[in-house]
Amino acid sequence: MRFLSRLLLGFLALLLAIPAGAAILLGALVLDPVASVWLTQGALAGLHAGLSDLAAGLPPEGVALIVAGLAKASFVLLAVPPALVALVGETLRWRGLLWYGAGCGLVTAALPWLVRGAVRPCVAALAAEARVTAILFLAGAGAGLVYWLIAGRSAGRPA
Question: Residue 29 pLDDT more than 70?
Answer without folding.
Answer: yes
